[in-house]
Write a structure and sequence with these properties.
Pathway: Glycan biosynthesis; starch biosynthesis. With 616 residues, the chain is α/β, with parallel strands linked by helices.
């Protein structure tokens, strides 16, 4: 049986019904098809899930022939038969099909035969129907090239994004690969790499003044190909050269040097002409500025030096003999990327201002037409108050009683007086200037005069760590400071506190305020970047007195404004319980999933193909 999916966007296919056994089901797929959500929902590098209603006694194998359109709309004449092996759930039922790539099978023939009893399995479960995802208009090949990706490597929000967004995109039918370094702690004893396979492929590249051998590792997980190299991130391009790439609609969500290599060494010769590059700026304060002498290590032609040249002003130089000459890879990437993204809409505007652009504001302003912001999502399975393994009790928007139990358990754990009605304020984050810890420091003496409790979790500058210890000694019944970072404790603070304070000077996106709202903890934040985008100010008189908003924002960033806003939140907690519950529930009911963010990324992918790629 052959099903030819050539319908236009928006078409819905009916169920496939056969009365006889199927010896083979062939699906011929052509690009631009969105309406086969009931037939093929997920297309990953190694996984195609068949979710159509197949009423059949037996399926021996599934063959998929692909003939995708390229970015220009022309159809490839080549058709490939791809053999899919069956995937089963715990009961042995076939729930999907695993793509066996040509690189693995070669000329071998692999046929797997298992019965599918379709009596009552042809309809999707009630839960699945209720959570059906919006259809994907177009599917793309997407490659993330990143310095870190959770859970393998992580130092901050970049690791979270590159560990979660690829999975969300793969679940929506895109073919996704993540390329990242395998750092020194990624040896055989590291459990995070337990399922990775050494591909037994070695490549030699020339850098650092001589040839360097690169090893490659691979893991297929959650619909995504995770590939690791044993060399520094700037040379991950070699991985892409051996990757099994299709020739249509490739999106590079990439490290900055890769964008330059695309424009300088490949596109002028017609290579990757149908690919697009997108640079995702997580924190513009980190621009990849290095001494000018390191330029030759980037693998770029000499004539491209001017595109990366960055000269520091006199006042910023280290000494009188310092010429200030450096290379800035972010500058070069911003200049020629096909699209530019930040991790919130507010931050996409802030980086075009002198205050927020860190020297790149003029260049970014000149590229406003391709600059957008998309708020990060969170892992809603890990951060879920109804199932959180780290908290003392579970609760939900329908039953909030467990939150009080989490609060009293946290007070007991920290050695604070167990007082369910006392407002408990929390802070989780790095102890540094960006996070506004100095503002908290100046406000604490006055805040401690009120009937509140305050807990801080974080590490960073020694002066702030020492201050936390000293303050705990001064206010033994009101203040606790946990120096360091502990994931289970961060979950318990998020669940147990009534208020989460985030006085960041700038915050590209921020995740803690999203975690807090999902747990019914009310954020009080400085009105900047992603904090301003995600926290809506409480208005008790809106919606015919029902109220609206999920927290409080304040500006300017000052001790006085922080205290004034906190005191409004505290009085609302004490005196207006029904309004407080409304705040909690409005925050908990919002969609913070990566699925929501992935849909917005898809729109940007489509925009990227409207204009031709950059060629110098």
């Amino acid at each position: 049986m052959i099903v030819d999916l050539t319908a236009g966007a928006g078409t819905q296919m009916g169920s496939l019904q056969t009365s006889a056994n199927l010896s083979c089901l062939c699906v011929s797929v052509r690009g631009g098809v969105q309406g086969f959500s009931t037939v093929v929902r997920q297309v990953g590098f190694n996984s195609w899930l068949l979710q159509g209603r197949i009423r059949s006694r037996k399926i021996q194998s599934l063959c998929v022939r692909s003939s995708f359109n390229n970015a220009g709309g022309s159809s490839s004449s080549e058709e490939k038969g791809l053999l899919l092996g069956a995937e089963r759930d715990s009961s042995g039922s076939v729930v999907g099909f695993q793509l066996i790539p040509h690189s693995v099978t070669g000329d071998a023939t692999i046929v797997e035969s298992h019965d599918i009893v379709a009596d009552d399995r042809d309809d999707l479960s009630e839960d699945a129907e209720q959570k059906e995802k919006p259809p994907t208009k177009l599917t793309f090949n997407i490659i993330f090239v990143t310095a870190e990706a959770a859970p393998y490597s992580k130092t901050g929000g970049l690791g979270d994004v590159c560990g979660s967004l690829p999975v969300a995109l793969a679940s929506r039918g895109h073919r996704v690969m993540v390329v990242s370094p395998r750092y020194l702690n990624g040896g055989p004893s590291d459990e995070k790499y337990a399922n990775t396979v050494d591909l037994d492929v070695r490549a030699t590249i020339h850098c650092f003044g001589g040839p360097q051998e690169v090893a490659f590792y691979h893991e297929y997980r959650a619909g995504v190909d995770w590939k690791y190299t044993a060399l520094a991130i700037r040379y991950l391009w070699t991985t892409l050269l051996i990757a099994d790439l299709e020739r249509h609609m490739v999106i590079f969500m990439v490290h900055l040097v890769i964008i330059r290599l695309l424009a300088a060494k490949y596109r002028p010769y017609g290579v990757y002409k149908d690919a697009r590059s997108i640079v995702l700026i997580h924190n513009i304060a980190h621009q990849g500025v290095e001494p000018a002498a390191t330029y030759h290590n980037l693998g770029l032609p000499p004539e491209w030096y001017g595109a990366l040249e960055w000269i520091f002003p006199t006042w910023a130089r280290a000494h009188a003999l310092d010429t200030g000459e450096t290379v800035n890879v972010l500058k070069g990437a911003v200049a020629i990327a096909d699209r530019i993204l930040t991790v919130s809409q507010g931050y996409s505007w802030e980086i075009t201002t002198p205050e927020g652009g860190y020297g790149l504001h003029e260049l970014l302003s000149s590229r406003k037409s391709v600059l957008n912001g998309i708020t990060n999502g969170i892992d809603v399975s890990d951060w879920n108050p109804s199932t959180d393994e780290h908290t003392a009790s579970h609760y939900s928007i329908r039953d909030l009683s467990g939150k009080v139990k989490c609060k009293t358990a946290l007070q007991k754990e920290l050695g604070l007086p167990i007082r369910p009605d006392c407002p408990l304020i929390g802070f989780i984050g790095r102890l540094d200037y960006q996070k506004g810890v100095d503002i908290i420091l100046s406000a604490i003496p006055e805040l401690m005069q009120d009937d509140v409790q305050f807990v801080m979790l974080g590490s960073g500058e020694k002066q702030y760590e020492d201050w936390m210890r000293h303050t705990e000694n001064l206010f033994k019944d009101k203040f606790r400071g946990w120096v360091g970072f502990n994931v289970p404790v961060s979950h318990r603070i998020t669940a147990g506190c009534d208020i989460l304070l985030m006085p960041s000077r700038f915050e590209p996106c921020g995740l803690n305020q999203l975690y807090a709202m999902r747990y019914g903890t009310i954020p009080v934040v400085h009105s900047t970047g992603g904090l301003r985008d995600t926290v809506k100010d409480f208005n008790p008189y809106a919606q015919e007195g029902e109220g609206e908003g999920t927290g409080w924002t304040f500006s300017p960033l000052s001790r006085e404004k922080l205290l004034d806003t906190l005191k409004v939140a505290i009085s609302t907690y004490i005196e207006h319980k029904s309004s407080w519950e409304g705040l909690m529930k409005r925050g908990m009911e919002r969609d913070y999933s990566w699925e929501n963010a992935a849909i917005q990324y898809e729109q940007v992918f489509e925009w990227a193909f409207i204009d031709p790629p950059y060629v110098r």
